[in-house]
Amino acid sequence: MNDFEAQDVDVVVIGAGQAGLSGAYHLRRAGLEPDRDFVVLDHAPRPGGAWQFRWPSLTYGKVHGMHALPGMELTGADPDRPSSEVIARYFADYEAAFGLRVHRPVEVSAVREGEGGRLRVETSEGGYATRALINATGTWDRPFWPRYPGQETFRGRQLHTANYPGPEEFAGRRVVVVGGGASGTQHLMEIAQYAAATTWVTRRPPVFREGPFTEEWGRAAVAMVEERVRQGLAPRSVVSVTGLPLNDAIRAARASGVLERLPMFDRITPGGVAWDDGRVVDADVILWATGFRPVIDHLAPLRLRTPGGGIQIEGTRAVRDERVHLVGYGPSASTIGANRAGRAAVREIRKLLDAPVEVA
């Protein structure tokens, strides 16, 4: 593949979740036309971003902080319907309403330096030569699996939040849930109603937050995450800074012992998990609710990573390449953050596109 064979566009958007759709919306508002000036590429089989892959028991009423996409509210949703259905329908309607013409399923294999100051985006539907890139690939496709001694000897089942099937499948099983985030606590509270026994282990003691999540608190949390990516460090999740909000369900689970936390085990045995102090827990299932990492391997040819393990960004722009904007990365890895970041990225991209092109 070479640039001569690639289709010229001003902007390529990779990903059609909340972040990608926000970016596409603001590109359209700025006067750019889909499939002429910009293109949106999504590897998923249908609209919905990562939401379409969520487990059925995560109903829309249980979703924390789903913020509407810019320009179109989500109204009248049944709180008892799976969030995968509600949000996928909303995203599909949104794409149609604004004529975003998302290309799917399209795999992006690499983004490289091209000719004439353009980036070359290599995909399963051919190549694109673009002046700017909005990378909105999220984290769902890169679940993080920690490694512990003896892991390969475990005779039971190991699975990750990314392929969590819902609580009924764990009926009568002894389940160890690993992870102190929102997913881990949600899984535990569901599974405990069906399982023979549950055990919760985390690397650090969980922090439960009393009181409302104010706008001021939210800004402070985002600022802490933002500082890491400004330094080029691997981003942390916002929840790792904010802690877990206390609600009636959490309080009841703590009172009943379901959310009684143990420190991280030291090794995995064929029949369960064990600690160096002699404690042993038998288990049929280990569920890793250990989070996700950014999907950015396709950007590797551009050498954007720093020794700190992340991509250094200012706002949404990669410090090492002003043509690349990361939306839904680090501080914008939330629904409201993705909306704002999409608008900010397009504002800077417009300046880049309006700048005179240097002719060699």
What does this structure look like?
This protein has 360 residues and is α/β, with parallel strands linked by helices. It has helices at 18-29, 83-97, 182-191, 215-230, 239-242, 248-256, 335-354; strands at 7-14, 38-41, 108-113, 119-123, 126-135, 157-160, 174-178, 197-202, 208-209, 244-245, 261-263, 267-269, 272-274, 280-282, 285-288, 313-314, 317-318, 321-326. A hairpin with a 2-residue loop joins β12 (267-269) and β13 (272-274). The longest helix is centred in the C-terminal third of the chain and has 20 residues, at 335-354.
- What pattern of helices and strands is seen along the backbone? EHEHEEEEEHEEHHEHEEEEEEEEH
User: Tally the helices: what do you get?
Assistant: 7
The helical percent reads 10-25%
Mean pLDDT: 89
Total beta strand runs: 18
Low-confidence stretches at least 5 residues in length (pLDDT < 50)? none
Radius of gyration: 22 Å
